[in-house]
Amino acid sequence: MSPRGPTGLAAFLLLLTLLGRLEFAFGQTPRDSEQGTDSVESLPEQAWIYKPFKGRFLEPASLGVRDCYFQASDGVRLNAWYLSAPAGQPTVLYFHGNGGSLSSMDRTLAEMKRARFGVLLVDYRGYGLSEGRPSEQGLYRDGLAAYDYCRELGVPVERLLIHGQSLGGGVATYVASRRACSGLILESTFTSFPAVASKVCGGGFPGRLAFLAVHTQFPNKQRVATLTIPVFVIHGARDELIPCSMGKALHAATRTGRFWVVDGAGHNNLRSAARSEYARRLGQFWSDLKSGKFSP
């Protein structure tokens, strides 16, 4: 049974913390994979955050993309779909949200094609046909492995954009802080995961309790403040899960950022609300980077 009300959810998150500490104390801390490193997140916390679809219900050949496999640094085998870019156009290294898999990325792929971008769509460990079990540290490993694989495909740094949607923004920001790229796109992304937990619990005392309870961090605001590359922040004005104020805070933390608030858009319908403007804005971001005319 799921906890009811903000206080109940905050207490539930505190319980997750205690479970994680007990697991650690008894040497039963969950692992990213059989070969992976230990994660500080408890199994219940991982289950609360990550909602993977396992397997595949959409074949990459039907979408005209290449089915790719590569390994993270801890040996976990990962799956990705690759669409090469038209001549002179960028390739996007794309990290999706906490739910679904590559099989639910057909709309994303269509938008990238509309913007005339190439793309490497990545399934994290535990998602789709990728091995392992998701965790914050595991996703960081996956992000770096995906970047390295993208470079192996021949994508030059000067035509490489990193794009994260929702939870994927945490992976994208981490990778951009450790690898060279031309620009970063953060869509419907949060400032930090504890801030999300606090918001879900309604703020106040339950929110403060939740903020302290969760192990998962994804400190996006802190990381984005260190970046010198252009950052394009996109957020729905009516995002019911990650409030638009978090998008504004991310933009305010950037050194060189651009902010687009999509009127009428929630968390899961931003692209349908933006319509053709979505691909146009992505294209404009790249055009401004390429010409050296980028400005907030």
Structural summary, described in words:
This protein has an eight-stranded mixed sheet, with helices on both faces. Strands 1-5 form a two-stranded parallel sheet. The longest helix is centred in the first third of the chain and has 21 residues, at 5-25. Helix content is 40%, strand content 17%. The chain starts with a helix and ends in a 5-residue tail after the last helix. Strand 7, helix 5 and strand 8 form a beta-alpha-beta unit. It has a single domain (5-291), classed as Rossmann fold (3-Layer(aba) Sandwich). It is built from eleven helices and ten strands. Residues 18-38 have low confidence and may be disordered. The chain is an alpha/beta fold.
- Cα shape: globular
User: Looking at this structure, what is the CATH superfamily?
Assistant: Alpha/Beta hydrolase fold, catalytic domain
Strand pairing plus helix content: what structural class? Answer: alpha/beta
Order of helices and strands: HHEEEEEHEHEHEHHHEHEHH
Q: Summarize the biggest pleated sheet.
A: 8 strands, mixed
Q: N-to-C terminal Cα separation, in Å?
A: 46 Å
Tell me the radius of gyration: 19 Å
Main β-sheet, spatial strand arrangement: 2-3-6-4-7-8-9-10
Strand content: 15-25%
Q: How many DSSP-defined strands?
A: 10
* CATH structural architecture: 3-Layer(aba) Sandwich
Please report the first level of CATH classification, the CATH class: Alpha Beta
